[in-house]
């Protein structure tokens, strides 16, 4: 990235997934645009992905997009989930540096200039690390920290604890990311997988500007499973060892029981211990099969080779004006 080139302004792409975010959109643009306008030697685009919202998100986004050629809207055909929405946004981003950002302003936009500064220092990836996340509940923080610990212990690809999707990636890094063909896209892991020269800056996680979180406990659990199954096969392989140990234990126990019977004669009691052992082993086997099922299910859906997302329409400039019934607002004529 360090060779000298004819100076043309860098294009910074923001990639923002929106799912039922009508309440934050005004504040989002009011906050983000002044920040981007203030970055020296640069132009920008904001790639907004409407992830099948059922409220007025699309209408509001189009209102901004009509007044400003730099605001592009990728309208997905249904809700595909945040990872797919991010993927769609990254695919449509054209910038020299690309920054995924949550719509709810939990990733503070005022950090963007610092990300860009580091990028201009020569780093391909600049991660924003949450130094504290007191705005999240205790339960969310502790389960998240456990997840990172477990994930990093058993995966080859380490994801930095407390890093979200908020980061800056160079064009080269984004192009590398686009080479990864999988359908199950655990973005945090994929971001880490591509490697590159990485720097980080710290920030304090903000509360949501408006609206509510889209991630319930159950969704987060499945998200964690996605992360582990995407980057580790240890849960599959561990059963060989658990089975081996159990068999070894059974062998020793059998030897002991035979000896005892030879020395002390047959004794009948033992119902409780047999029952416990049967239940325990049955349970373990089912867990093992369940783990295999997690992987087989993913293999199944990967082999279908379905696209990660479907775009209903891509809006840019004001070519699609007929879609809009509201006049362009004065504020969005930047
Ligand atoms: N999001 C999305 N599709 C979904 C769920 C979420 O595009 O199915 C977007 C959402 O609009 C927001 C970002 O992902 O911009 C993060 O979501 P949220 O703030 O609800 O997650 P949290 O910060 O609570 O983890
Ligand atoms: Mg949020």
Automatic annotation (TrEMBL):
Keywords: Cell membrane, Glycosyltransferase, Membrane, Transferase, Transmembrane, Transmembrane helix. Residues 13-176 form the Glycosyltransferase 2-like domain. It comes from the Bacteria. SUPFAM superfamilies: Nucleotide-diphospho-sugar transferases. The chain crosses the membrane at residues 238-259, 271-296. Its main location: membrane. The keyword Transport does not apply. The keyword DNA-binding does not apply. GO terms for cellular component: plasma membrane. InterPro entries: Glyco_trans_2-like, Glycosyltransferase_2, Nucleotide-diphossugar_trans. It is found in: Cell membrane. Pfam families: Glycos_transf_2. One of its GO terms (molecular function) is glycosyltransferase activity. It is a multi-pass membrane protein. Belongs to the glycosyltransferase 2 family. GtrB subfamily. This is Glycosyl transferase. It comes from Caballeronia humi.
